[in-house]
Design brief:
The chain is 36% helix and 18% strand. With 472 residues, it is of the alpha/beta class. The longest helix has 21 residues.
Length: 472
């Protein structure tokens, strides 16, 4: 054989043999017993500064499938959102496992944003042997078999795809044991369904093991509704690498929340959902200040409880719920072109609009970006809310390497009220289809007293402002 030809053949085999190794990014969770937990990507620390990425346009609902649209439209939508998210500081999105792998790869290679793949694990019902069941029975052996088949297919589909950060199973399935419909209801209290929960969490353990068998290079966790059933999770799901928590506790979860997870599970947590809605039931108006204030406080606590700060040191970051408002959430199949202002469920921890015996949480207003009826390139325009700019400033500080003192100083330096004032003025001008009266870096221009009085910002802050020669 020709020597040169032999060298070429050897090189080809070496390159082909190396490709799977290059494609497989290793992600781990690692613990330093003095400083706590970190998420590591190929040995380098990565904090989860994430968003629950939503993309359902006005007029559509949960049945809308983005991936059935043209490649050109999908690419335009991803580019539109990813550029805004990247500018905010987002480095990972959470989506459910219907997104084609090619778009996970595109998002990562074009925009540098990771994806957490989330299999719903039968959360909102499933088809069993040709029959649709609205509530999943985790004790049924055939149902369990089908769920594990789906989990395996999910892992096989995304194994080796560039941009996959880790896997999650479920979406507060423990709440699904109690709620009567797919609509959001008041959060369950107590653990009255422990037998049902046992079937659920034992299947979660099988699901975690299934994913690990297929893709040993990525962490696997479950998504729980708050910390309900921690005792059962500890007993029945011992092999998961992290736990995802959807929680809505207002400004802070408090130390007991973090220490309960640390003491029970001895694994790190990531907030898979946290945030606040941007509508005030009391005033009947959009309330950007309240949303920004709650999110500011929530992330200050995340920093305080993370690696190297001396507290529980077990939180890896979180996913803000959510990117844009979803106009279908209230009516589900009706009023899809109306931005509903009716409260969906009650939560007294969000005290700025809590009213006894009334629903104050509005599922259609959780976006940190408002979705406008106006479109560009077929995509509803995004109007950024104050929470966007608060997070943009907050995430500049390195979460792992900063000290507790630096965290305190950094978050104290974020002027939430000023950010809310400026963005609400911009919002009002945009709604009137006028040039913005203010930008995040510009001065405040003239605004009538009547218009200013109607803004839902802090009364004390407004009292400190006066009009003089067209300036505040």
């Amino acid at each position: 054989m020709n020597c040169k030809r032999y060298v070429y053949i050897v090189l080809i085999f070496l390159i082909l043999g190396a490709l799977p190794i290059i494609a497989q990014t290793r992600v781990t969770v690692e613990r330093d017993f003095d400083n706590g937990w970190q998420l590591m990507v190929d040995g380098e620390p990565l904090v989860v500064h994430g968003i629950v990425w939503t993309f359902v346009p006005i007029g559509e609902n949960y049945s809308y499938i983005l991936w059935n649209q043209s490649d050109e439209y999908i690419r335009t939508l991803i580019d539109t959102d990813a550029e805004l998210l990247k500018a905010m500081g987002v480095n990972v999105i959470r989506v459910f496992s219907d997104v084609p792998p090619q778009w996970v790869q595109y998002l990562y290679q074009r925009h540098g944003i990771y994806t957490v793949v989330n299999d719903l694990f039968g959360r909102y019902g499933m088809t069993v042997d040709g029959r649709w069941l609205g509530r999943t029975d985790y004790s049924d052996m055939r149902t369990r078999e089908l769920i594990l088949d789906q989990v395996r297919a999910t892992a096989e589909r995304y194994k080796g795809v560039p941009g996959v950060l880790f896997y999650l199973l479920g979406n507060e399935n423990n709440y699904g044991l109690e709620w009567d419909s797919d609509a959001i209801e008041d959060l369950p209290v107590g653990q009255r369904l422990e037998v049902r929960a046992g079937y659920l969490y034992s299947l979660f353990e099988e699901g975690v093991r299934t994913v690990k068998d297929v893709d040993p290079f990525k962490p696997v966790g479950i998504v729980n509704g708050d910390i309900q059933y921690l005792n059962i999770i500890k007993e029945l799901v011992p092999t998961m690498d992290l736990i995802g928590i959807n929680t809505y506790r207002g400004e802070r979860a408090e130390d007991l929340f973090y220490s309960s997870i640390a003491n029970s599970l001895d694994i790190p947590l990531v907030f898979t959902e946290l945030g606040a809605d941007a509508f005030n039931i009391r005033t009947g108006r959009e309330d950007q200040l309240s949303q920004a204030m709650f999110i500011h406080s929530q992330w200050q606590e995340i920093y305080q409880q993370s690696y190297g700060k001396g507290l529980s040191q077990n939180v890896l970051g979180g996913f803000v719920f959510e990117w844009i408002d979803e106009w279908w959430k209230s009516g589900m199949v009706e009023g899809l072109d109306e931005h509903d202002m009716t409260g969906t469920w009650a939560n007294g921890a969000y005290w700025t609009d809590a009213v006894q015996n009334e629903n104050n949480m509005n599922e259609e207003w959780f976006g940190i970006a408002y979705q406008s009826p106006l479109t560009e390139d077929g995509i509803n325009k995004r109007r950024l809310r104050a929470a966007y700019y608060v997070l943009q400033q907050a995430w500049v500080l390195d979460q792992y390497s900063s000290t507790a003192e630096e965290v305190e100083e950094h978050f104290a330096g974020i002027d939430v009220e000023m950010i809310a004032l400026r963005t609400e003025l911009d919002s009002m001008a945009t709604e009137l289809q006028e040039e913005p009266v203010v930008s995040m870096s510009g001065s405040l221009n003239i605004l009538s007293r009547a218009e200013f009085d109607n803004l839902s910002i802090g009364a004390g802050f407004k009292q400190g402002l006066t009009i003089s020669n067209g300036q505040w």
